[in-house]
Amino acid sequence: MTSKHEKGFCLWPSKYSNFTIAHSPTVGHRDLVKEFVDECNRQGIKPGLYFTTTDTYNVGNPRKNQIQLQQMTELTTQYGSDIAYFWYDHHDASTEWIAIDDIVRKNQPQCAMLGPDCWLTGSETGYSAYPMWHGVRTTDNTTHGRPIPEDSPHGNPHGNWFKVWESDCSNYGGCHPWFFGGDTPQSLALMLDHWENTYGLGHNYILNLPPSKDGVITPKMAASAAAFGAERYRRYGAGSSDPDQPSECEIVRTKGRLAQWSPDTDNEQVLHFDKATFFDRVFLSEDIVHDGQLVVQYAIDVCTGACKAGDDSTWKNIVNPNTTKGGNTIGTHHIDRVNLNVTSTSVRLRLLQVLDAPVLPLISFRVLQVGKQQDIIELSPDVL
User: What is the rounded distance in angstroms from the CA atom of residue 375 to the CA atom of residue 272?
Assistant: First the structure.
């Protein structure tokens, strides 16, 4: 939720500004940040807040910078100890922003921040860059700095700072406007296309649901978000890169670490189907938390008959490093969307190149049949 946007209006009763909800003639008794965080906690959702220091209300105020620090102290000490994310607008390695980063690290050490921990890729269109490396070099060679131009938006396999990449989109065609632009949300097909082209390329996806001028998430907006969540769950389950339970679309999976690595040996995992099977998604993930990001290039092949080990003539390649949005990096999660017009009896993953490292990649390899998306879900009034 936006706690304070560029105009400087605070949705909590900050003691350090006269431009807050406390001065509203209609809702001055409320604290929307508290209501939001309390409801997130009630529903088991990690709360996240938008914050910016632009604050045009305080332009010209000699205490403007100090006010930003005081307000961030309020946000990090008055609303529980489990704020998951601060989305900073216009973050850079300035003295002001570094001081704000330090306040969050002190008061909410578990919290991720856009800037020190995460950065943007793409151009707010619902689509992200690929290949994608989490490593970057920064403008000031600290975690506070932005990625240098050469490392944005693809990252750098040899970068010395770790960034989680993300892509943002407002729930309208074209991903804009950010504020309410009418009750015309994206189609479910477009929402899933955006998600598979952001999360599916290793990024996080943040979907904006703009409230109306009455402060309400409209029924159509709520229904589109619920339909998106239900269809994403049908396809991929709980959403983790290596879930305990398969989704209803998952056909088969395997997970394993290569025992050795050489460009001249078989570096592959093979999945066999009980019968000739149609599939349209391959979900891959590396254990980058423990190993780091290692895979540089890979390929996926299918077999439509009797597959012979070591005989590539029995396999047909469907993903390789020349494939659009596939065949290069894997990272925390990568989805290959494949358009097969034949059924297969086996599918194999071949690692073509990996970085030098003390360990070899631990790969989770899943095959899914998504098929046609479900229709928009009609929500009952009690759900809304």
Answer: 31
